[in-house]
Amino acid sequence: MTVEVMTCEKKADGLPMPRRIWAVLAISITLMMSVLDASIANVVLPTFSKDFGTTPSLTIWIMNAYLLALIVSLLSFSSLGDIYGYRRVYLSGVGLFCITSLVCALSDSFWMLVGARALQGLGAAAITGVNAAQLRTIYPAKYLGRGLAINAMVVAVSAVAGPTVAGAVLAIADWHWLFAMNLPMGAAALIMGALFLPKREMRRDRRFDKKAAVANALTFGLLIYSIEGFAHHESPWLLAILLMLLVVVATWYIRDQLHKENPLLPVDLMKIPIFSLSVVTSVCSFTAQMLALISLPFFFQDSLGRNEIETGLLITPWPVAILFAAPAAGYLVERIHAGLLGGIGMFILATGLYLLYALSEAPSNMDIIWRMAVCGVGFGLFQTPNNSTIISSAPPSRSGGASGMLGTARLLGQTLGASLVAILFSYIPHAQSTRVCLLAALFFSVIAGVVSCLRLSRRMPLKRD
Fold first, then answer.
1. Among the three residues 240, 259, 278, which one is the final residue of a domain in this structure?
2. Helix, strand or coil for residue 5?
3. CA torsion, ordered 143, 144, 149, 154, to nearest 10 deg
4. What is the pLDDT of residues 114-126, one digit of tens each?
5. Does 463 map to a domain?
6. Which of 63, 85, 408, 424 is 20 to 30 Å from the Cα of 400, by its Cα?
7. What distance lies between CA 312 and its chain's CA centroid?
8. What b-and-e string marks burial along 376-404, b requiring 16 or more CB atoms within 10 Å of the CB?
């Protein structure tokens, strides 16, 4: 049974201005923090290893604890948002993220930091799991694409900017400040969210499925750990056992969810063709992006002899292009079918990736910069209409499930892309490994473009609300 929780607010299609701006600013700040903290620790892993006296393979858990906690709980927090309200789940997530960021900053032992990072990942999951669903209550239905354009821009730029931000902080302070800087931003977002986020929301009058939440955590945890295991050459026997457990748990989980009216794993939404096609394209697009962005720095530094600062500058045109392309796509999606716009974006990305693959042995900086910008334009044009379709094709009462699936697709794509880079680098001669990664990225972007175009036969649901 669906109940709409009302307060003194009058029922309206989105928030009025300028309240809408403050609400969007609040969720954009916290989304930026959650995405940044997924990658910002990478730069300082050697420093962590030295300070704590841990091996590199153990130190990587400072990053993995965050990512695993995020992905195994994301859909659970999305479901809680449908039941208890997105605003409540969001504010709880921001509060937890701020508290655990403080604990991270004050950590004086390795396991204290790992534990705090895991709890920080739970806070990030609460933020990410309801983020896109909140945009559906903040923006009028016809302008939803504009709100999701901001979302796509924040995610894309934050994901790429992590190493740059970390480098800037470490130039003037120690690693503790990487986490301490979250506190003023998180406090500001918490206050703005409490004041300006809508209190009127559609909620589901049902209980939270605890068994499904455990099965969900095991399924995604085993999936991610198995993918990472292949990338890091874990024991074949261990991988075989993990895969068997994954098949057993996932089979039970999916079969159980198929019989639920409001499943934690949104199998009901995956029955909507345009929704499932959009999820597939999202996974493929982020796989393509990570294949390129992780492998290219090795090419710039090892093959072309650029230093770390030059490498960062050469990567920058990609997110800068997204800054322009994503808002433009937010306006265009109101006039052009998202399937066509997304397909054009992915084919532009594929073109940019091929141009990078075909670089000469001694390219100038400008040769690299304009090719990176082409990739950013393509990714920006694709991501906004695709996200709009995922969110708007779900019923309003299932916005939390759609928002969770949006974040899950991104994280799965990023994990798959990073793992493929590790696998390809370990089997292919170093001089050719980046070019092979670019070809793989081109393949995934073409697949995403083709699948996006398959949506042209489907009516776009952007005005469904």
1. 259
2. strand
3. 120
4. 999 999 999 999 9
5. no
6. 63
7. 21
8. bbbbbbbbbbbbbbbbbbbbbbbbbbbbb
